[in-house]
Design goal:
Blueprint: H1 47-58, H2 64-73, H3 86-99
The protein binds iron/sulfur cluster.
Iron/sulfur cluster (SF4) binds next to helix 1 and helix 2.
């Protein structure tokens, strides 16, 4: 249930998208993946393919941390962002939230 309706008893703060500001995308100028012709590489395919994407593109990316924080802050749980697959980011967000 990635985007639960407002008022849904099962909805959590992890499921509510927010409006994005243009300034929040500044880090994308240095993204290694900005030249990728087919962004579906980062979203589709079996887990082994996504892990390969992380190795090839994300591990040496200069904005990996910014990418990861952007995805978590904006509750983006699909695809590869910041060198992590969605469920890994979600677990990280959950752990962070519990330690606050
Ligand atoms: S960390 Fe990966 S998904 Fe994020 S900008 Fe870099 S290459 Fe792209």
């Amino acid at each position: 249930m990635p985007y639960a309706a407002e008022g849904d008893a099962a909805a959590s703060k992890f499921d509510t998208p927010r409006k994005l500001e243009w300034a929040e995308f500044k880090w994308t100028e240095s993204a290694r993946c900005k030249e990728v012709k087919d962004p579906r590489l980062f979203f589709d395919g079996p887990e082994t393919d996504l892990k390969r994407v992380i190795l090839v593109w994300c591990d040496e990316c200069p904005v990996k941390q910014a990418c990861l924080e952007f995805a978590i802050r904006n509750k983006i749980w699909d695809g590869v962002w910041g060198g992590m697959m969605g469920r890994t980011r979600r677990r990280l967000a959950y752990r962070r939230d519990r330690t606050r």
